[in-house]
Amino acid sequence: MKPILIVTGGSRGIGAATARLAAQRGYRVGLSYKSSGDAAAALVSEIEKAGGEAIAVAADVAVESDVRRLFDEVDRRFGPVNALVNNAGILERQMRVDEMDVGRIERVFATNVVG
User: Fold this and answer.
1) CA 91, CA 15: separation in Å to the nearest integer?
2) Average pLDDT, integer, range 51-67
3) Taking a C-beta distance cutoff of 8 angstroms, is the pair 84, 6 a contact?
C-alpha cells in the first residue's frame, strides 16, 4: 500500500515541488491551500496525469477546524496519514516591531508557529 503524505501550503512554490516529488516517489498526496484553488487543482491534475494520486483541500492551517477537516478528508480518500510536510506560512510587509499591530503579530504566529 502506498504511503500517504499531507503537504500544507502545497499549491505553489516549495509545497508544490514537494508534492510533485512525493507523488513521483510513490506517495498519495493530500495538499492544502488557503486561497490558490486554481493552482491546487492544476497540481492535482498534473500529478494524476503522471500516474500519481492527489487531492487538494482548502484549509487555513491557523484554523483548527480546517486542519481537522484536512486530515479527515485525506483519511477518507486515501487512509491514515503517514507523513506531514508542514510547509504553509505567510509573510507580510517588512517593518519594525514597534510599528506592528497586534493583529499582524497574531496572524503571522497563528499560521507560521501554531499552524
Assistant:
1) 15
2) 96
3) yes
Q: How does strand 4-8 pair with strand 28-33? A: parallel
E strands of the chain, at which residues?
Answer: 4-8, 28-33, 53-58, 83-86
- Give the pLDDT confidence of 68-77 residue by residue, as tens digits: 999 999 999 9
Cα–Cα nearest to 61, from 16, 31, 22: 31
What is the identity of the amino acid at 90?
I
Instruction: Find cell 512525493 and name the residue.
Output: 22
Q: Which residue has the cell 493530500?
A: 30
Alpha-carbon gap, residue 40 to 48, rounded angstroms? 12
pTM over 0.90: no
CA-based R_g, the chain, Å:
15
